[in-house]
Design goal:
The protein is α+β, with helices and mostly antiparallel strands. It contains 13 helices and 16 strands. The longest helix is centred in the last third of the chain and has 32 residues, at 409-440.
Length: 444
């Protein structure tokens, strides 16, 4: 399968499927000396995984990663402390599928002849024929986005070491939109949301807090722990702390499953999503991504512009539009309104607005990067839909019986955050390399 690799200096290749044994991430360009653990990567993955609330699919995949290669197994020589550090070789991460049962496979088998409207199932059958991996939509399932989140966790970790922060949140869901909130407040709320999710996640506690799964363990020892987790998955998850949304919001100031910085709006979003679900339908929304600390000049002209690369987030299956800065609103502006006028203060340039979203000419301006993604409603709904039998090419009716999300917006923000991190790190590595060459000819 072509098309599963992204990047030049920081390269990400992904593989796997919804009901295959699992998924993998292969990263090239990870610098040596990075300390990142499975617990760090899982902390990012748990914000995306299903089975945690009424806002997500009931599938209970734990999404526990295993770092398979790319880190030192021991200190390389006396006096060195580099055990567990990346060593510059490709970093490979595995994410086993643990919640796949025959009853669910059978549900797909009985409905796979009738492709879901709005989903890839018709087009993928035309491309790959009878061997198309259509159990759970295979590689066209939202399940593959776990690979992007794992890769993005590594990229985000590297960027943060260079003073670049990337974070994302739900701005709109099911027609309920958040008002203006200060950027520093948004970042604090997103950080608090991550903290709450980690502290309340029973898998994180069972594996990492109770030290059943550690970086020191060999691969087969880790898989043995995951085999035990698979056998007791439901019991372990059900034994976790109760996520009482009202109580958590009062204590921590966040909604536990809807990452919207305005907690009152988050509850409104949840209410409307569930109303639409109970009508047998699904809903979409809007996700916003913010990046701070970017140097000016990031991006490469013409074919690798920063905003052009951000447009690649259309590769996320549920995304139907990407806008940067004012986005679609620029069509109704005049130049005097749209232009971000520049002033100087204390020998430094600053902008009076940020309609460009931190990008002009495809290069970063040094301002805050702002991008938004339009998330479509989940294609699989409880209402009967018109479709065809894709083998006999006859008209048919589709009645959904498989597991599904009432909305994707509550789970797609970490994917957007991760993808943005991959784009920024790849361009940042190119930027540093080019600048180093450019400066090399200068006299001291």
């Amino acid at each position: 399968m072509l098309g599963c690799t992204y990047g030049k200096m920081f390269q990400t290749s992904v593989a796997g499927g919804s009901y295959q044994d699992g998924l993998t991430v292969h990263l090239q360009g990870v610098p040596p000396g990075l300390r990142i653990t499975e617990a760090d990567i899982y902390a990012a993955l748990l914000t995306r995984k299903p089975g945690q609330s009424e806002l997500a699919s009931p599938r209970r995949e734990p999404d526990v990663p295993i770092i398979y290669s790319g880190v030192n197994a021991a200190d390389t020589m006396p006096g060195f402390s580099n055990k567990g550090c990346t060593n510059g070789t490709p970093l490979v991460i595995m994410i086993p599928n643990l919640d796949r049962h025959f009853v669910h496979i059978e549900q797909y088998q009985t409905s796979n002849r009738t492709p879901r409207p709005g989903h890839a199932s018709y087009a993928s059958y035309q491309k790959y024929g009878e061997c198309d991996d259509s159990i759970g939509a295979g590689f066209f399932s939202g399940r593959y986005t776990s690979t992007l989140v794992a890769a993005g966790a590594v990229a985000r970790h590297i960027l943060k070491r260079h003073g670049i922060d990337v974070f994302s949140y739900v701005k709109e869901a099911a027609g309920v939109r958040m008002g203006d909130v200060a950027l520093d407040v948004i970042q604090q709320q997103v950080d608090k949301f991550r903290e709450v999710r980690r502290d309340y996640d029973p898998i994180y506690q069972w594996l990492f807090t109770e030290k059943r799964f550690t970086s020191d363990m060999r691969f087969l020892e880790k898989t043995a722990v995951l085999a035990e987790l698979e056998k007791n998955l439901i019991a372990i998850q059900d034994a976790g702390r109760t996520m009482d949304a009202v109580a958590i919001s009062k204590e921590h100031g966040v909604h536990p499953t809807m990452n919207c910085p305005d907690v009152d709006v988050a509850f409104e979003m949840e209410k409307r999503i569930l109303q639409i679900r109970d009508e047998g339908d699904s809903s979409g929304g809007l996700v916003e991504i913010i990046a701070t600390g970017l140097p000016a000049g990031l991006g490469e002209p013409v074919f690798n512009k920063l905003d052009g690369e951000l447009g690649r987030m259309m590769s996320i299956g549920t995304i139907k539009a990407v806008e940067v800065g004012a986005g679609y609103a620029v069509k109704d502006m005049q130049g005097s309104e749209c232009n971000d006028q520049i002033r100087a203060k204390d020998g430094k340039a600053y902008f009076e607005s940020n309609n460009a979203g931190g990008v002009t000419g495809g290069l970063s301006t040094g301002q805050t990067l702002v991008a938004r993604l339009a998330v479509k409603p989940t294609p699989t709904i409880a209402k009967d839909q018109h479709t065809i039998d894709k083998v006999s090419v006859e008209n048919a009716k589709l009645s959904a019986v498989t597991r599904r999300d009432p909305t994707i917006v509550a789970r797609v923000w970490p994917v957007a955050e991760a993808f943005t991190s991959l784009v920024l790190l790849d361009l940042y590595a190119q930027h540093l390399g080019y600048r180093a060459l450019w400066c090399a000819d200068k006299e001291d």
